[in-house]
Amino acid sequence: MQTTIRSAITFQGVGLHSGRPARLTIRPASAEHGIWFKRTDIRLGDTLVPARWDAVEITPLCTRIVNRAGAQVSTIEHVMAALAGCGVHNALVEIDGPEVPILDGSAAPFVRGILSRGVRALTAPVRAIEVLEPVEVTTAAGWARLSPARPGQGLTMQFHIDFPDAAIGTQDKGLNLANGAFVRELCDSRTFCRQSDVDTMQANGLALGGTYENAVVVDGDQVLSPGGLRHADEAVRHKMLDALGDLYTAGAPILGHYEGHKAGHAITNMLLQELFAKPGAFRLRACDDITAAQLPGVGVAREEIPAVA
Protein backbone atom coordinates (compact mmCIF):
# COMPACT_ATOMS: atom_id res chain seq x y z
CA MET A 1 0.00 0.00 0.00
CA GLN A 2 0.99 3.64 -0.39
CA THR A 3 2.58 5.24 2.65
CA THR A 4 3.20 8.53 4.39
CA ILE A 5 5.21 9.66 7.39
CA ARG A 6 3.46 9.08 10.74
CA SER A 7 4.00 12.59 12.11
CA ALA A 8 5.74 15.81 11.13
CA ILE A 9 9.51 16.25 11.47
CA THR A 10 11.42 19.55 11.13
CA PHE A 11 14.99 20.22 9.98
CA GLN A 12 16.94 23.47 10.20
CA GLY A 13 20.15 24.54 8.51
CA VAL A 14 21.42 26.68 5.67
CA GLY A 15 21.12 26.42 1.91
CA LEU A 16 24.28 25.14 0.22
CA HIS A 17 24.27 27.71 -2.55
CA SER A 18 22.30 30.61 -1.06
CA GLY A 19 23.83 30.45 2.43
CA ARG A 20 20.41 31.48 3.76
CA PRO A 21 18.89 29.92 6.91
CA ALA A 22 16.28 27.32 6.02
CA ARG A 23 13.60 25.49 7.98
CA LEU A 24 11.97 22.44 6.39
CA THR A 25 9.12 20.32 7.75
CA ILE A 26 7.96 17.01 6.28
CA ARG A 27 4.27 16.47 7.01
CA PRO A 28 1.96 13.47 6.45
CA ALA A 29 -0.24 13.50 3.36
CA SER A 30 -3.16 11.45 2.07
CA ALA A 31 -3.05 8.69 -0.53
CA GLU A 32 -2.53 9.84 -4.14
CA HIS A 33 -1.11 13.16 -2.90
CA GLY A 34 2.45 12.47 -4.03
CA ILE A 35 5.36 14.67 -2.94
CA TRP A 36 4.74 18.42 -2.99
CA PHE A 37 6.72 21.34 -1.58
CA LYS A 38 5.07 24.41 -0.06
CA ARG A 39 6.81 27.78 0.30
CA THR A 40 5.56 29.05 3.67
CA ASP A 41 7.37 32.39 3.26
CA ILE A 42 5.30 33.38 0.22
CA ARG A 43 2.06 35.08 1.23
CA LEU A 44 0.33 35.63 -2.13
CA GLY A 45 -0.16 33.41 -5.13
CA ASP A 46 0.46 29.71 -5.67
CA THR A 47 2.88 28.42 -3.05
CA LEU A 48 2.70 24.70 -3.91
CA VAL A 49 5.42 23.22 -6.11
CA PRO A 50 5.20 19.61 -7.36
CA ALA A 51 8.31 17.47 -6.93
CA ARG A 52 7.85 16.22 -10.46
CA TRP A 53 10.10 15.83 -13.49
CA ASP A 54 8.10 18.30 -15.60
CA ALA A 55 8.48 21.00 -12.91
CA VAL A 56 12.29 20.67 -12.86
CA GLU A 57 14.26 23.65 -14.13
CA ILE A 58 17.52 22.39 -15.62
CA THR A 59 20.50 23.54 -13.55
CA PRO A 60 24.02 22.03 -13.45
CA LEU A 61 24.59 22.00 -9.67
CA CYS A 62 21.30 20.94 -8.09
CA THR A 63 17.71 19.95 -8.79
CA ARG A 64 15.36 22.93 -8.76
CA ILE A 65 11.58 22.76 -9.13
CA VAL A 66 9.37 25.69 -10.06
CA ASN A 67 5.61 26.13 -10.46
CA ARG A 68 3.75 28.22 -13.03
CA ALA A 69 3.60 31.18 -10.64
CA GLY A 70 7.39 31.19 -10.36
CA ALA A 71 7.66 29.78 -6.83
CA GLN A 72 10.72 27.56 -6.69
CA VAL A 73 12.63 25.25 -4.38
CA SER A 74 16.27 24.30 -5.02
CA THR A 75 18.52 21.43 -3.95
CA ILE A 76 15.67 19.00 -3.36
CA GLU A 77 17.65 15.89 -4.34
CA HIS A 78 18.80 14.78 -0.86
CA VAL A 79 15.40 14.99 0.82
CA MET A 80 13.83 13.34 -2.25
CA ALA A 81 16.36 10.51 -2.02
CA ALA A 82 15.52 10.09 1.68
CA LEU A 83 11.79 9.91 0.95
CA ALA A 84 12.38 7.37 -1.83
CA GLY A 85 14.86 5.35 0.21
CA CYS A 86 12.53 5.22 3.22
CA GLY A 87 9.54 4.24 1.09
CA VAL A 88 7.46 7.41 1.63
CA HIS A 89 5.07 7.91 -1.29
CA ASN A 90 3.05 10.90 -0.03
CA ALA A 91 4.25 13.97 1.89
CA LEU A 92 3.89 17.72 2.08
CA VAL A 93 7.31 19.36 2.48
CA GLU A 94 6.98 22.87 3.91
CA ILE A 95 9.95 25.20 3.55
CA ASP A 96 10.41 28.83 4.53
CA GLY A 97 12.75 29.80 1.69
CA PRO A 98 14.00 28.92 -1.79
CA GLU A 99 16.54 26.22 -0.88
CA VAL A 100 16.49 22.99 1.13
CA PRO A 101 18.99 23.00 4.03
CA ILE A 102 22.14 21.08 3.19
CA LEU A 103 22.60 19.73 6.77
CA ASP A 104 25.70 17.48 6.67
CA GLY A 105 25.72 17.21 2.87
CA SER A 106 24.15 13.76 2.78
CA ALA A 107 20.64 12.32 3.12
CA ALA A 108 21.35 10.66 6.49
CA PRO A 109 19.81 13.41 8.69
CA PHE A 110 16.59 13.27 6.64
CA VAL A 111 16.57 9.47 6.80
CA ARG A 112 17.14 9.49 10.55
CA GLY A 113 14.29 11.96 11.03
CA ILE A 114 11.85 10.06 8.83
CA LEU A 115 12.61 6.73 10.47
CA SER A 116 12.33 8.28 13.93
CA ARG A 117 8.73 9.19 13.10
CA GLY A 118 7.98 5.98 11.21
CA VAL A 119 5.99 5.28 8.08
CA ARG A 120 2.32 4.25 8.01
CA ALA A 121 0.30 2.52 5.30
CA LEU A 122 -2.59 4.27 3.55
CA THR A 123 -5.71 2.88 1.90
CA ALA A 124 -4.53 2.86 -1.71
CA PRO A 125 -2.25 0.48 -3.60
CA VAL A 126 1.23 1.63 -4.47
CA ARG A 127 1.89 1.93 -8.19
CA ALA A 128 5.30 1.89 -9.83
CA ILE A 129 6.61 3.01 -13.20
CA GLU A 130 7.80 -0.12 -14.99
CA VAL A 131 10.37 0.48 -17.73
CA LEU A 132 9.44 -1.62 -20.78
CA GLU A 133 11.97 -0.41 -23.35
CA PRO A 134 15.46 1.12 -22.98
CA VAL A 135 15.77 4.90 -23.17
CA GLU A 136 19.06 6.79 -23.19
CA VAL A 137 20.36 10.36 -23.12
CA THR A 138 23.88 11.34 -24.14
CA THR A 139 25.54 14.75 -23.80
CA ALA A 140 29.09 16.04 -23.98
CA ALA A 141 29.30 15.64 -20.20
CA GLY A 142 28.10 12.02 -19.90
CA TRP A 143 25.18 9.69 -20.45
CA ALA A 144 22.42 7.84 -18.63
CA ARG A 145 20.16 4.93 -19.52
CA LEU A 146 17.02 3.30 -18.14
CA SER A 147 16.36 -0.33 -19.10
CA PRO A 148 13.75 -2.91 -18.06
CA ALA A 149 14.28 -4.35 -14.60
CA ARG A 150 16.26 -7.52 -14.28
CA PRO A 151 14.22 -10.65 -13.44
CA GLY A 152 13.04 -10.63 -9.84
CA GLN A 153 14.41 -7.13 -9.14
CA GLY A 154 12.91 -3.66 -8.70
CA LEU A 155 15.30 -0.72 -9.09
CA THR A 156 18.97 -1.41 -9.67
CA MET A 157 21.69 1.11 -10.38
CA GLN A 158 25.17 1.18 -11.91
CA PHE A 159 27.23 4.37 -11.80
CA HIS A 160 30.66 5.40 -13.12
CA ILE A 161 32.58 8.60 -12.40
CA ASP A 162 36.01 9.83 -13.48
CA PHE A 163 37.69 12.89 -11.97
CA PRO A 164 41.26 14.14 -12.46
CA ASP A 165 41.81 14.56 -8.72
CA ALA A 166 43.51 11.47 -7.31
CA ALA A 167 41.39 11.76 -4.14
CA ILE A 168 38.39 10.77 -6.31
CA GLY A 169 39.76 9.33 -9.56
CA THR A 170 37.74 6.61 -11.31
CA GLN A 171 34.99 4.90 -9.32
CA ASP A 172 32.30 2.35 -10.23
CA LYS A 173 29.50 0.95 -8.10
CA GLY A 174 26.45 -1.21 -8.71
CA LEU A 175 23.60 -1.71 -6.26
CA ASN A 176 20.21 -3.36 -5.97
CA LEU A 177 18.20 -0.76 -4.05
CA ALA A 178 15.81 -3.27 -2.44
CA ASN A 179 15.80 -4.31 1.21
CA GLY A 180 17.03 -1.03 2.68
CA ALA A 181 20.20 -0.87 0.58
CA PHE A 182 19.88 2.90 0.22
CA VAL A 183 19.84 3.42 3.98
CA ARG A 184 22.78 1.08 4.59
CA GLU A 185 24.95 1.86 1.57
CA LEU A 186 24.25 5.36 0.25
CA CYS A 187 22.39 7.69 2.60
CA ASP A 188 25.44 8.94 4.55
CA SER A 189 27.57 9.82 1.50
CA ARG A 190 28.11 13.56 1.20
CA THR A 191 28.14 15.95 -1.71
CA PHE A 192 31.66 16.59 -2.97
CA CYS A 193 33.57 19.12 -5.00
CA ARG A 194 37.06 20.21 -5.95
CA GLN A 195 38.65 23.18 -4.18
CA SER A 196 39.09 24.95 -7.53
CA ASP A 197 35.36 24.55 -8.19
CA VAL A 198 34.54 25.99 -4.76
CA ASP A 199 36.61 29.06 -5.52
CA THR A 200 34.87 29.52 -8.87
CA MET A 201 31.36 28.97 -7.47
CA GLN A 202 31.85 31.37 -4.57
CA ALA A 203 33.26 34.01 -6.92
CA ASN A 204 29.98 33.68 -8.84
CA GLY A 205 27.74 33.90 -5.78
CA LEU A 206 27.21 30.15 -5.34
CA ALA A 207 28.14 27.63 -2.63
CA LEU A 208 27.81 30.44 -0.08
CA GLY A 209 26.60 27.97 2.55
CA GLY A 210 29.22 25.35 1.79
CA THR A 211 31.78 24.36 4.42
CA TYR A 212 34.31 21.59 4.89
CA GLU A 213 31.76 20.01 7.27
CA ASN A 214 28.80 19.79 4.85
CA ALA A 215 30.75 18.79 1.73
CA VAL A 216 33.75 16.66 0.89
CA VAL A 217 36.28 19.06 -0.62
CA VAL A 218 39.29 17.61 -2.44
CA ASP A 219 42.40 19.12 -3.94
CA GLY A 220 44.51 16.74 -5.99
CA ASP A 221 45.20 13.73 -3.79
CA GLN A 222 44.14 15.49 -0.59
CA VAL A 223 40.77 15.39 1.18
CA LEU A 224 40.49 18.77 2.88
CA SER A 225 37.36 18.04 4.93
CA PRO A 226 38.08 17.10 8.57
CA GLY A 227 37.86 13.38 9.23
CA GLY A 228 38.39 12.46 5.60
CA LEU A 229 36.03 10.17 3.73
CA ARG A 230 33.17 8.13 5.17
CA HIS A 231 33.72 5.54 2.41
CA ALA A 232 36.65 5.07 0.05
CA ASP A 233 34.16 5.44 -2.81
CA GLU A 234 32.00 8.10 -1.13
CA ALA A 235 31.91 10.20 -4.31
CA VAL A 236 30.23 7.60 -6.53
CA ARG A 237 27.89 6.64 -3.69
CA HIS A 238 26.77 10.25 -3.47
CA LYS A 239 26.17 10.40 -7.21
CA MET A 240 23.91 7.37 -6.83
CA LEU A 241 22.13 9.08 -3.91
CA ASP A 242 21.51 12.11 -6.13
CA ALA A 243 20.28 9.90 -8.96
CA LEU A 244 17.74 8.17 -6.71
CA GLY A 245 16.41 11.54 -5.55
CA ASP A 246 16.19 12.83 -9.12
CA LEU A 247 14.50 9.64 -10.35
CA TYR A 248 11.86 10.04 -7.63
CA THR A 249 10.60 13.14 -9.43
CA ALA A 250 9.06 10.60 -11.84
CA GLY A 251 6.13 10.69 -9.41
CA ALA A 252 6.34 7.04 -8.36
CA PRO A 253 8.98 4.39 -7.68
CA ILE A 254 10.70 3.06 -10.81
CA LEU A 255 11.05 -0.61 -11.73
CA GLY A 256 14.08 -0.68 -13.96
CA HIS A 257 17.86 -0.55 -14.26
CA TYR A 258 19.54 2.88 -14.22
CA GLU A 259 23.04 3.34 -15.60
CA GLY A 260 24.92 6.62 -15.25
CA HIS A 261 28.28 7.52 -16.78
CA LYS A 262 29.45 10.87 -15.44
CA ALA A 263 25.77 11.80 -15.25
CA GLY A 264 24.38 14.65 -13.17
CA HIS A 265 21.05 16.23 -12.29
CA ALA A 266 20.38 17.61 -15.76
CA ILE A 267 21.07 14.32 -17.53
CA THR A 268 18.82 12.34 -15.18
CA ASN A 269 15.99 14.81 -15.72
CA MET A 270 16.51 14.65 -19.49
CA LEU A 271 16.31 10.86 -19.18
CA LEU A 272 12.91 11.08 -17.47
CA GLN A 273 11.74 13.46 -20.19
CA GLU A 274 12.83 10.92 -22.79
CA LEU A 275 11.04 8.09 -20.95
CA PHE A 276 7.73 9.92 -20.67
CA ALA A 277 7.93 11.12 -24.28
CA LYS A 278 7.65 7.46 -25.36
CA PRO A 279 4.38 5.96 -24.08
CA GLY A 280 5.42 2.47 -25.16
CA ALA A 281 8.60 2.63 -23.08
CA PHE A 282 6.82 2.39 -19.71
CA ARG A 283 3.61 1.51 -17.93
CA LEU A 284 2.11 2.35 -14.55
CA ARG A 285 1.83 -0.92 -12.64
CA ALA A 286 -0.03 -1.73 -9.43
CA CYS A 287 2.41 -3.58 -7.18
CA ASP A 288 1.59 -6.97 -5.71
CA ASP A 289 3.32 -8.07 -2.51
CA ILE A 290 6.28 -9.61 -4.35
CA THR A 291 6.92 -6.53 -6.49
CA ALA A 292 6.38 -4.12 -3.59
CA ALA A 293 9.00 -5.98 -1.56
CA GLN A 294 11.60 -4.98 -4.18
CA LEU A 295 10.95 -1.24 -3.83
CA PRO A 296 13.45 1.00 -2.01
CA GLY A 297 12.45 1.59 1.59
CA VAL A 298 10.66 -1.67 2.26
CA GLY A 299 11.90 -3.24 5.48
CA VAL A 300 14.31 -0.47 6.52
CA ALA A 301 15.18 0.09 10.16
CA ARG A 302 16.67 3.07 11.95
CA GLU A 303 19.50 0.87 13.24
CA GLU A 304 20.72 0.39 9.66
CA ILE A 305 21.83 4.01 9.25
CA PRO A 306 25.65 3.92 9.15
CA ALA A 307 27.14 4.92 12.48
CA VAL A 308 29.60 7.25 10.76
CA ALA A 309 26.73 9.61 9.93
TrEMBL record:
Keywords per UniProt: Hydrolase, Lipid A biosynthesis, Lipid biosynthesis, Lipid metabolism, Metal-binding, Zinc
Its EC number(s): 3.5.1.108
Molecular function GO terms recorded: metal ion binding; UDP-3-O-acyl-N-acetylglucosamine deacetylase activity
Top-tier EC class: hydrolase
One biological process term in Gene Ontology: lipid A biosynthetic process
InterPro entries: Ribosomal_Su5_D2-typ_SF, UDP-acyl_GlcNac_deAcase, UDP-acyl_GlcNac_deAcase_C, UDP-acyl_N-AcGlcN_deAcase_N
Database matches in Gene3D superfamilies: lpxc deacetylase, domain 1 (3.30.230.20), lpxc deacetylase, domain 2 (3.30.1700.10)
Pfam families xrefs: LpxC
Binding residues for Zn(2+): 78, 238, 242
Cofactor(s) the protein requires to work: Zn(2+)
Domain of life of the native organism: Bacteria
Catalytic residues identified in the record: 265 (proton donor)
Reactions catalysed, as given in the entry: a UDP-3-O-[(3R)-3-hydroxyacyl]-N-acetyl-alpha-D-glucosamine + H2O = a UDP-3-O-[(3R)-3-hydroxyacyl]-alpha-D-glucosamine + acetate
Recorded GO CC terms: membrane
Pathway listed: Glycolipid biosynthesis; lipid IV(A) biosynthesis; lipid IV(A) from (3R)-3-hydroxytetradecanoyl-[acyl-carrier-protein] and UDP-N-acetyl-alpha-D-glucosamine: step 2/6
Protein purpose: Catalyzes the hydrolysis of UDP-3-O-myristoyl-N-acetylglucosamine to form UDP-3-O-myristoylglucosamine and acetate, the committed step in lipid A biosynthesis.
Protein family per UniProt: Belongs to the LpxC family.
The protein's name: UDP-3-O-acyl-N-acetylglucosamine deacetylase
Native species: Salipiger mucosus DSM 16094
Protein encoded by which gene: lpxC
